[in-house]
TrEMBL record:
Binding site for substrate: 111
Domain NADP-dependent oxidoreductase, first and last residues per copy: 27-261
Protein name per the record: Aldo/keto reductase
Family: Belongs to the aldo/keto reductase family.
InterPro entries: AKR, AKR5G, Aldo/ket_reductase_CS, NAD(P)_OxRdtase_dom_sf, NADP_OxRdtase_dom
GO molecular function list: oxidoreductase activity, acting on the CH-OH group of donors, NAD or NADP as acceptor
Organism whose genome encodes this protein: Fredinandcohnia quinoae
Record flagged with keyword Transport: no
Database matches in Pfam families: Aldo_ket_red
């Protein structure tokens, strides 16, 4: 884990970068094109989007303009709740693929569990995987009970679970379960939408390492074994966020950050959420 191209190996052997760019709430068109191109220019290989972000076309355009060989990139997108179900999931995948202008996706995720269709949806993802149209499949915002329920009837175990994860929500039970099952945990909102950047404990640790609070939190993610995808539209911030491979947090500082957990979310609880949150 010593450079931006460092990867973790998913349980099917596919290599996934530890670090990437998220594009949640980045406007389609020039804003997302510039953001993705800046990330690729500075060595990022992993880009994370979703159907509901409505910026897949811009992400695809940026990939095309950047001219980096496709096999060097790791592109993630996600199926939105209203497209859950077997046939609708297959159609939604085709729509995402077309918008991105790609021949395959590296990682396709069910965005939220919802209430009653995720098993049927998972069968569609298994088909896409078996047909070679996606290199890895996974879920997002799944609790332990969702994963247990899914796995008992699945042919293929999810390779990734992308969840809200930051020092105020360290997801210990879920992390332990995913580790036991060989499911890679991935963080969305790793900085708690900026709230954690003013935390006195984080600031003190940042001063010790001569790093920014954001860099300390993102380094904590990686040392905890969690893939992370911070979002930014500013080139200097995109570059700065990734400058976390030249230092290592000591165990005492890891413990200090671990102690900040409050089981506090900035997004909805997946058990209560069906459609409305973007």
């Amino acid at each position: 884990m010593n450079n931006l191209q460092a990867t973790t190996t998913l349980h099917n052997g596919v290599k996934m970068p530890w670090f990437g760019l998220g594009v949640f709430k980045v406007k389609d068109g020039q804003e997302v094109i510039d953001s993705v191109k800046a990330a690729l220019k500075h060595g990022y290989k992993s880009i994370d989007t979703a159907a509901v972000y409505e910026n897949e076309a811009g992400v695809g355009q940026a990939i095309k303009e950047a001219g980096i060989p496709r096999e060097e990139l790791f592109i993630t997108t996600k199926l939105w709740n209203s497209d859950q179900g077997y046939e609708t999931a297959l159609q939604a995948f085709d729509a995402s693929l077309e918008k991105l202008g790609l021949e395959y996706i590296d990682l396709y995720l069910i965005h939220w569990p919802g209430k009653d269709k995720y098993k049927e949806t998972w069968k569609a993802l298994e088909k896409l995987y078996k047909d070679g149209r996606v290199r890895a499949i996974g879920v997002s915002n799944f609790h332990v009970h969702h994963l247990e329920d899914l796995i008992k009837d699945a042919d293929i175990k999810p390779m990734v679970n992308q969840v809200e994860f930051h020092p105020h929500l360290s997801q210990e039970e879920l992390r332990a379960y995913c580790q036991k099952e060989g499911i890679q945990l991935e963080a969305w909102s790793p900085l708690k939408q900026g709230e954690l950047l003013s935390d006195p404990t984080i600031i003190a640790i940042a001063e010790k390492y001569q790093k920014s609070p954001a860099q300390v939190i993102l380094r904590w993610d990686l040392q905890t074994g969690v893939v992370t995808i911070p979002k930014s539209i500013k080139e200097h911030r995109i570059r700065e966020n990734a400058d976390i491979f030249d230092f290592e947090l000591q165990s005492e500082d890891m413990e200090k950050i671990n102690s900040l957990n409050k089981d506090e979310r900035v997004g909805p609880n997946p058990d209560d959420f069906e459609v409305g949150f973007k």
